[in-house]
Specification:
The complex is a heterodimer of chains A (about 280) and B (about 180). Chain A has about 280 residues and is an alpha+beta fold. Chain A has a domain of about 80 residues: Rod shape-determining protein MreC, domain 2 (Thrombin, subunit H, Beta Barrel). Chain A contains three helices and twelve strands; from the N terminus they run H-H-H-E-E-E-E-E-E-E-E-E-E-E-E. In chain A, the strands form two sheets. Chain A has a six-stranded antiparallel β-barrel with strand order 1-2-5-4-3-12. Chain B has one domain. The chains are: A alpha+beta (about 280), B mainly alpha (about 180).
């Protein structure tokens, strides 16, 4: 056999290894510290995004035909259930409008501009998903030009699914709550049980049971299974009151000192077509 | 000669269709590909590169160059982290070359080579991301939840696509011989 590590090959391997890890380390640091990627990267992403539409458009069309068909099959059953809910929703909506109006008037009275509950939603379509086991990431078709900024929370089907991690001019990347990296799901959340409110953050995600975990909870308040979990608005980027999911069970942490609250997320992370990005007004 | 062959259009177009289909399939069949706790990674682009090496005959497609290109786009567009796929794809092309030299080309040896290349690809991907902190999953979980389903999915791709792609290459090359 020829000598495998000839001098030239060895040098080439070392150089590529150094370059690979240098680039990876550099781009991770850059991504963590800057609000937008370098201009060249944005430009490249926008171009590839356009090219992707050529393939994604027919693919999504086929997908939508299939989902229309499967929706049609259970229409009857669904219709019966939904009818029962409609009457209730109309009442809730009217009450909601009245309360929102009152809230606005009261805020004006207090000369308060806006609070963490004021946000608007930017609707975007999901173009594609990163084919990776590690990065649970989707690309959406709105970017800087639509007012999207890094770290904005992203919702789908009325509940939280992730946050924006990279913004280009015409598309951006959204990291889902299920991502394996450690920073993906750190959202400040709260749970109301009775008259008490428990604050905390999402600390991890359990992929085998599809549950979000709120760790380090030291409260004495008894939390009930099925209690609704929503964002608390602390931290200043994520608005208050975005629905996350329901409490599914409560356990102890490894040392038995604090509680661990398991939350069943309301969204289906593997079936995202339309998402909305929540933009706080302040 | 690649420069005057018809493959100079067919190969890059096929490569990028495969590349974008990876993402689109992951999105459309997300419930199938990423059902908890398993993740299947679609690697059509890698399949296209490996098959191109088997079918190219004496038309030498500049595979390494295209591998670097598609790797750069994967880094840019899919992962957003530079420096992994841009090196991994050309490395896999090289690995295919080294392995293929030792076997007679047939369907079974091709599928074996693709299996090895794919396993090495996923393994290096896991290690690199583990080192820079993107992944926080144990090695045993990686083997069971990611590597095994990924191999299964991509071997299914291979079996389905081997003959159509082989036919495509044979027809294109036969036309040129006339």
């Amino acid at each position: 056999m020829r000598k495998f590590f000839s001098n030239r090959r060895l040098v080439l391997i070392v150089i590529s290894l150094v370059a690979a890890f240098g680039l990876m380390g550099g781009s991770v640091t850059l991504r963590n510290n800057k609000s937008t990627p370098p201009l060249i990267q944005q430009f490249g992403n926008d171009i590839v995004g356009f090219a992707n539409d050529v393939v994604a458009y027919p693919a999504n069309w086929v997908g939508s035909i299939y989902s229309n068909y499967s929706n049609l099959l259970n229409t009857y059953q669904e219709n019966k259930e939904l009818k029962a809910q409609v009457a209730e929703i109309a009442q809730t909506k009217v009450r909601d409008q009245t309360l929102a109006k009152e809230n606005k008037e009261l805020k004006a009275e207090l000369k308060m501009k806006s609070s963490m509950t004021d946000y608007e939603l930017i609707t975007a379509a999901v173009i594609t998903r990163t084919p990776s086991a590690w990065q649970k990431q989707v690309v959406i078709n709105k970017g800087q030009s639509s007012g999207i900024k890094k770290n904005m929370p992203v919702m789908s089907g009325g509940s939280l699914v992730g946050r924006v991690t990279e913004v280009n001019k015409t598309n951006s990347k959204v990291e889902l709550l299920t991502d394996t990296s450690e920073s993906a799901n750190r959202f400040a959340i709260q749970i109301t049980s009775g008259s008490k409110t428990v604050n905390g953050i999402i600390t991890s995600y359990n992929s085998s049971t599809n549950e979000l975990i709120m760790g380090e909870v030291t409260t004495k308040a008894s939390l009930k299974k099925g209690a609704k979990v929503y964002t608390s608005g602390m931290g200043g980027v994520t608005p208050k009151g975005l629905y996350v999911g329901k409490v599914s069970r409560i356990g102890k942490d490894d040392y038995g000192l604090a509680k661990k609250v398991y939350i069943k997320p309301a969204a289906d992370f593997n079936n995202l077509n339309i998402v909305s990005v929540a933009k706080t007004s302040n | 000669m690649y420069r005057i062959s018809r493959l100079r259009f067919i190969f890059p177009i096929g490569l990028f269709i495969c590349f974008f289909l990876d993402g689109s399939l992951s999105k459309l069949l997300g419930q199938l590909y990423f059902s908890y706790p398993y993740s299947m990674v679609s690697e059509l682009a890698l399949l296209w590169l490996v098959l191109a090496y088997f079918f190219e005959d004496d038309i030498q497609i500049p595979l390494t160059g295209f591998a670097i290109l598609v790797g750069a786009v994967a880094d840019l567009y899919y992962s957003g982290i530079w420096g992994l796929f841009i090196f991994l794809y050309p490395l896999m092309v090289w690995l295919t070359r080294v392995l293929a030299k030792n076997f007679n080309p047939s369907f079974l040896t091709s599928i074996l080579i693709f299996f090895i290349v794919l396993a090495v690809f996923e393994l290096l991907n896991y290690w690199a991301y583990l080192m820079i902190g993107v992944v926080s999953v144990g090695f045993a979980d990686f083997i069971v939840d990611v590597l095994a389903p990924t191999l299964a999915l991509n071997l299914v791709y291979f079996v389905i696509l081997y003959w159509p792609i082989s036919r495509l290459y044979r027809k294109t090359l036969a036309k040129e011989q006339r």
